[in-house]
Amino acid sequence: MIGRTRIKVCGLRTPGDVEAAVQAGADAVGFVFAPSSPRCIEPDAAADLACLLPPFIQAVGLFVDRSAEDVVAMAEDACLDFVQLHGREDQRTVEAVRERWPVIRAIRFSPEAIARWGPETGIDLLLVDGSDGGAGQRFDWRALAAQRDSIRAPLMIAGGLTAENVGEAIRTVRPFAVDVSSSVERERGVKDPALIRAFCRAVACADHSAPAD
């Protein structure tokens, strides 16, 4: 058995979403601040939802190509614990945001992207996705596993993860955390509590069945 894989459920918009994620065993919930997303929420609404979280469940805000000043201001308004930068933000933006908030740097998987961001110590987590975010697109987990030792920050993976395949992803990559959004929706942007529960159960089962390192 390996250490417990943390779970982030992203794209929450209602009190019912938050309750379902917390009751299922999520460690973090994600609020999307990208206007193009069907899961987008305003910072004041996210703050209301963050106030519903019990102790030790963390609120993460997802931003795409915003200035550091905008990210810091919105993160404060939304009562976030972490900022997730999911666009083409440069190193200067990442550093400026991290002066105020812990940063999850999200990248689309490629060997080149891992070579660039894997050795980086100026981030708090590295999130590797199969797309630019929210598309539910799987990537080559074995290719990521081959570069696993070069990654310095705790590793989170996303993209096409479902209750049916997340166990394989965990056994292959051994991530610190997994991130799910589209596969726990009954329609685009609308979360399904039963699917959230099934996903969290699958992660727990994978942890308990994985061989020791």
Provide a descriptive summary of the structure in words.
The chain has 8 helices and 10 strands. With 213 residues, the chain is an alpha/beta fold. α1 (15-24) runs parallel beside α8 (193-209), α2 (43-50) crosses α3 and α3 runs parallel beside α4 (91-98). The model has no long low-confidence stretch (mean pLDDT 94). The relative contact order is 0.18. It is globular and about 45 Å long. An 8-stranded parallel barrel has the order 1-2-3-4-5-6-7-8, surrounded by 5 helices.
Supply database-style keywords.
eight-stranded parallel beta barrel; 213 residues; 8 helices; TIM Barrel; alpha/beta; two-stranded antiparallel sheet
Regarding quaternary structure, what we see is single chain
Strand content: 15-25%
**CATH topology title:** TIM Barrel
What is the C-alpha radius of gyration, as a whole number of Å? Answer: 16 Å
Helical content class? 25-40%
CATH architecture: Alpha-Beta Barrel
Largest sheet composition: 8 strands, parallel, barrel
Q: What is the string of SSEs from the N terminus onward?
A: EHEHEHEHEHEHEHEEEH
List unreliable stretches of 5+ residues. none
Query: Which strand order does the major sheet show?
Result: 1-2-3-4-5-6-7-8
Number of strands: 10
How many alpha or pi helices? 8
